[in-house]
C-alpha cells in the first residue's frame, strides 16, 4: 500500500453516497448487470442491490471494468424482501416503467434517500415491485423503439441523481459514517487480510497515515497464537 494508493481509495470513499442505490430485479444478462455496476461506481453508489432467480450474480468482469470490487452488492431472495430492506432504511423506491402513469425521471428529488429499480430485459420491472414502489418513473421516449437498454436507462437516471447531488454539495463532504468508512477502506486496501479477519471474527485494526496496518501489540493475530 503506497500513500498515493491510500489517498486514491480515500478520495473515492469521500464521495460515496450511501443513500443512493440501484436495485436490479432479475437483470440476467451479465454485460448489462456489470455495466450497471460500473455506472454505480462512477456515480458514487456505495452499495447496490440485486434480486436474481438463481441467487447468483451475473457479473461480467470485462464490462464491469473491475467495478464489482468497489461497489458492495447485496443480493436479496425476493424483490419484496429487497424493497422491504430499503424502505426500512428510509429509502424512497422508484420503479422504472414504461407506463403512461409513470412520472418523468427528472421530476424526482434524488437528494432524498433514493433507490431505483431496474427491470429485466424481457419483462421489465414486475407488477409486484411496481406495486410496492413509491412511484413509477420513465425516461421519455420519442423515437420508434419502445425502450432503452437497461444499463443505458440506469445511467441516464443515476447521472441525473448525481447531478442533483453535486449541485447540492453532497459530494463535497463525507456521507459514510466513520465505522462504515473504515470497514470499506480496510477491505479495499487489504482484501485478503480483511477476509482472514472476518473468518476469525476479529475486528479490522486502524490504519496509519500511510495506510499501514496498526496491529495490536505489533503482531498478526493469526500468527501470534
Ligand atoms: N418489455 C420491457 C417492459 O415493458 O418494461 C422492456 C424492458 S427494458 C428493455 C429493460 C429495463 O430498462 C426496464 O425494465 C427499465 O428498468 C429500463 N428502461 C428502459 N427504457 C426505459 C425508459 N424509457 N424509462 C425508464 N426505464 C427504462
Could you explain the architecture of this structure?
It is a single chain. By secondary structure, the chain is of the alpha/beta class. The protein has two domains: 1-12 and 176-218, no CATH class; 17-167, SPOUT methyltransferase, trefoil knot domain (Alpha/beta knot), CATH 3.40.1280.10. The chain has nine helices and seven strands. The protein has a seven-stranded parallel β-sheet with strand order 3-2-1-6-4-7-5, with helices on both faces. Helix 2 runs parallel beside helix 6 and helix 7 crosses helix 8 (191-199). The longest helix has 18 residues, at 150-167. It starts with a helix and ends with a helix. The mean pLDDT is 92. The chain binds S-adenosylmethionine. S-adenosylmethionine is lined by residues 96, 98, 118-119, 121, 124-125, 138-139, 141, 147-148, 150, 153.
What is the secondary structure topology, with strand pairs?
Layout: H1 3-13, E1 20-25, H2 30-43, E2 47-51, H3 61-64, E3 72-76, H4 79-88, E4 92-96, E5 103-104, E6 114-118, H5 127-132, E7 135-138, H6 150-167, H7 178-189, H8 191-199, H9 221-224
Parallel strand pairs: 1-2, 1-6, 2-3, 4-6, 4-7, 5-7
Helix pairs in contact: 1-7, 2-6, 7-8
The structure holds S-adenosylmethionine (SAM).
Q: Which small compounds were modeled alongside the protein?
A: S-adenosylmethionine
Average pLDDT value? 92
Query: Could you estimate the helical fraction of the residues in percent?
Result: 25-40%
What is the CA-atom radius of gyration, in angstroms? 19 Å
Q: Rough shape?
A: globular
Please report the number of helical segments.
Answer: 9
The helix/strand series, from N terminus to C terminus, equals: HEHEHEHEEEHEHHHH
